[in-house]
Amino acid sequence: MTIKEVSRKYGLSQDTLRYYERVGMIPRVTRSISGHRDYQEADLAWVELVKCLRNAGLTVEAIVEYVRLSMEGPSTIRQRYELLRQQHDDLMAQRRRMDEALGRLEHKIEMYAQKLK
Q1: 3-116: which CATH number, 1.10.1660.10, 1.20.1250.20, 3.40.1000.20, 1.10.3720.10?
Q2: For FRET with 45, which of 20, 26, 92, 110 sits at 20 to 30 Å CA-CA?
Q3: DSSP state of 40
């Protein structure tokens, strides 16, 4: 799959895909004989994972570290687990804060809705 096709499929610019590869957020993408990027299933799986990790709030540095550890193999499973576990805990704390804020907003909105009636 060409970079243009991957860009369209995942809603990422071609520059973003190149950046992800350049900084190590995804491993080096498979290349065609002519040297052009030729995304294979494994490459696409990395792009999908990076999108997920970015949406989960991981920093570029954390994703680069995760990829580096993944490339080192099974001996780094504990480190990868801890990295993802910490992000999970951070997201859950953020979710609790958001749920609290939403509850307060909903209360205020309902209060004003009642006053408008």
Answers
A1: 1.10.1660.10
A2: 92
A3: -
Residue type at position 40? Q
| pLDDT at site 57 | 87
- Average of per-residue pLDDT across 95-116: 96
Spatial CA neighbour of 31 closest among 8, 3, 63, 4: 3
Instruction: State if pTM tops 0.85.
Output: no
Instruction: Locate the domains of the chain by residue range.
Output: 3-116
Burial class (CB in 10 A: 0-12, 13-18, 19+), 76: middle
Q: Taking phi first (over 0 means left), then psi (-120 to 50 degrees means alpha), and beta for anything else, what does residue 98 get?
A: alpha
CA-to-CA distance for 113 and 6, rounded, in angstroms? 46
Report the alpha-carbon distance of residue 76 to residue 102 in Å, rounded.
39
12-57 residue pLDDT tens: 999 999 999 999 999 999 999 999 999 999 999 999 999 999 998 8
